[in-house]
Specification:
Blueprint: H1 14-39, H2 46-51, H3 58-73, H4 82-94, H5 98-128, E1 131-136, E2 139-144, H6 153-166, E3 187-188, E4 194-195, H7 200-210, H8 214-234, H9 239-250, H10 253-258, H11 265-285, H12 288-302, H13 306-323, H14 329-356, H15 363-371, H16 395-398, H17 406-424, H18 427-438, H19 456-471, H20 490-509, H21 515-534, H22 545-568, E5 576-580, E6 602-606, H23 611-620, E7 625-630, E8 635-638
Parallel strand pairs: 5-6, 5-7
Antiparallel strand pairs: 1-2, 3-4, 7-8
Length: 645
């Protein structure tokens, strides 16, 4: 076998590969040995170790173990180094017709974009089409997961926002009768009725809410975002390496699950994907148009999740700031990037003025200060400010917030990092790919086509973006939905880096393994990461990550479905007012959800504390039949004025 560990050629070498392999094999071995030793205490003994696998460690352990065995099996074979073969292929290609070559490259790029976007939408659809059983009016029914009502009140707040925009409005007048009883989670309803959240998500959802299919918009956003991330990676890496990353994004179980939640993540991810692609185009061409497009996309992301947009884009901004001292044209590019961002801030100021009466105060901050003061950003959040009006605070929900200390912050960082690996792909396959990509952060640009990464600056920006996105969320007490939603946008970046790393690994493996064997090992390593995410295999307790997430989210969704189905049935005489007794119920499962214009045939509010207050409500809504609903028993009862009252 030809010696390939020489560093003199300036190309990545096998030393890095075996260093990464050693570290990850040692880690998987540790976890598997611990699982083996614990099996001795079970009735099955060591058979339990073979019969019940860990979805994160068992298959990666065997896959990593197979690599040195394959090398030993293929020892003595002399294989042409991959970078030599690539250089020969590129030389032959350069002799062909340049126009035909460009056409072929464009066609392959378009085909790759279509495939990646289609697979992403298909993955989202597969999660949404999962069948869920629920009890409805004394019988069991079967329904698609995507057809169930949302699980989180954040989703209902975004729906209210989209319906408000669909009506051509920014806000609605507030409820004039007992607004405290009609208060919806994550919605301001005292001075104006408006979602607490920033406007991008509602704007994106408008056309899909109009056709009563809001989840389609998130599926589409995921497909387009995966395509733009792939195009962005093509600017800094070989097309095949970028294609691997794009496929990983489109097949990610975590991204597919989140595309079925009506949250801000997918619209923001779409905006950030366009920002990333246009920024890399700007880096390579120095064209003002791409700087302007980058600014527009970043401004949109800021109007969706401002902290996420800032954390993601910070390294890109620092790179551009450094260029101001080196290139005169960088000043024009900085202006092109800054103008849309300033315009976005102006739009936000007008939105704030309409929502809160102050152009400096966001609806998000107004809601936090008024109703959930412990949910604020920063350490020691449990110490409620003295000026907080405790009569407005949603006590049960507010107490859910843990007081943030450095120890809890460190635990949150760990949880977010591990969960982002688990849900993006799987811990060890993703770590392997990302670690293999890390070597390119320490290299110089290579333009002869022999290196998977032609522009290491882009790789450094991606790694830095993952780091800063985690860091800006350190001062928050909650680790996130599914333990990672605050750093959700790191997923496509990690998967792109993993794609480059896995492609680079295939080149290193091809130096001592037959090409088909090398590619087969890479594919198998990706499959062992995807398998527990998508397929309910018996050795994984017959449950996949996706099916587990669907089951968990369906707990709240099926209850909302039962409530909505009962309200829509003839059992409730319309128009109606339903009083919901939430005194001993989970505040995160509140049924007080109304349209922004309060014009539905059935309105919901909290059950007041006395019959006299109920009578006041009846007087305020004389045309509505009043019912009571108990979340604990899920029973509706007709209410009437007590005799002699």
């Amino acid at each position: 076998m030809a010696k390939t560990d020489d560093l003199s050629d300036g190309k990545p070498n096998q030393s890095w590969l075996w260093l990464v392999w050693t570290l990850l094999f040692a880690a998987t071995t540790f976890f598997e040995l611990r699982r083996l030793f614990s099996s001795f205490d079970s009735p099955l003994g060591p058979m339990a170790w073979l019969s019940f696998w860990d979805p994160e460690t068992t298959l990666p352990f065997f896959c990593l173990l197979s690599l040195p065995l394959l090398r030993w099996t293929c020892r003595g074979r002399r294989i042409l180094p991959r970078h030599v073969a690539s250089a020969t292929s590129d030389k032959d290609l350069s002799k062909s017709d340049p126009l035909a070559t460009r056409f072929q490259a464009t066609a392959s790029c378009i085909a790759a974009c279509c495939l990646i976007a289609s697979l992403s939408v298909l993955s989202s659809y597969s999660v949404g089409s999962s069948r869920v059983q629920y009890a409805s009016l004394l019988q069991k029914r079967d329904i698609a997961f995507a057809d169930l009502p949302p699980a989180y009140h954040d989703e209902y707040s975004y729906l209210l926002q989209a319906r408000t925009f669909l009506a051509g409005r920014i806000t609605y007048p507030p409820m004039s009768v007992r607004p405290d009883l009609f208060h919806q989670m994550h919605v301001l309803n005292e001075h104006r009725t408006v979602s607490r959240y920033f406007p991008l998500t509602g704007l994106w959802m408008v056309p899909f809410v109009a056709i009563d299919q809001p989840v389609w918009g998130h599926w589409l956003a995921g497909g387009i975002a995966s395509m733009f991330f792939y195009l962005a990676m093509r600017k800094i890496a070989k097309p095949r390496a970028a294609f691997v990353g794009g496929l990983l994004i489109s097949l990610s179980p975590g991204l597919a699950v989140f595309s079925n939640l009506l949250l801000a993540h997918h619209p923001v991810m779409l905006a950030l994907s366009i920002f990333t692609w246009s920024f890399f185009r700007m880096m390579s061409t120095s064209k003002f148009a791409y700087a302007l497009l980058s600014g527009i996309a970043l401004a949109l992301a800021m109007l969706g999740r401002p902290m996420t947009a800032a954390g993601y884009a910070l390294p890109f901004g620092l790179w551009l700031a450094a260029q101001l001292f080196q290139q005169r044209k960088a000043r024009l590019l900085a202006i092109g990037l800054a103008l849309p961002i300033m315009s976005g801030l102006a739009v936000l100021a007008m939105f704030n003025l309409e929502s809160t009466g102050s152009w400096r105060r966001t609806a998000y901050q107004e809601y936090t200060d008024s109703f959930t003061p412990r949910h604020r950003y920063g350490f020691n959040n449990g110490a409620v400010r003295p000026d907080a009006d405790q009569s407005k605070v949603l006590t049960n929900y507010d107490r859910w917030a843990t007081n943030l200390t450095p120890a809890i912050a460190a635990e949150n960082v760990r949880n977010r990092f591990v969960a982002s690996l688990q849900w993006s792909l799987a811990i060890f396959p993703l770590l392997f790919g990302v670690a293999m990509a890390a070597q390119f952060c320490f290299r110089q640009a290579v333009t002869d086509g022999t290196d998977p990464v032609a522009n290491p600056t882009g790789t450094r920006l991606f790694f830095a973006s993952v780091f800063t996105l985690h860091m800006v969320h350190v001062p928050y007490w909650f680790d996130g939905i599914m333990h990672w939603h605050y750093v959700f946008e790191t997923a496509p970046v990690l998967l792109l880096l993993a794609g480059v790393g896995l492609y680079a690994t295939s080149e290193r493996l091809a130096e001592f393994l037959p090409a088909r064997v090398a590619v087969g090992w890479i594919v198998s390593f990706v499959v062992v990461g995807l398998l527990p995410g998508w397929f309910a295999v018996p050795v994984f307790d017959s449950q996949s990550k996706v099916s587990g997430a669907v089951s968990e989210l369906s707990f709240a969704r099926t209850r909302f479905q039962y409530f909505n189905a009962t309200v829509a049935s003839s059992a409730i005489q319309k128009p109606a007012l339903i009083l919901i007794d939430e005194r001993n119920s989970d505040p995160q499962l509140s049924y007080v959800i109304n349209p922004p214009d309060l014009g539905f045939a059935v309105l919901k509010c909290r059950h007041p504390g006395s019959n006299a207050e109920v009578e006041e409500l009846q007087a305020a809504f004389p045309d509505r039949t009043i019912y009571t609903f108990s979340p604990g028993t899920r029973r509706f009862q007709h209410w009437s004025i007590p005799s002699g009252g």
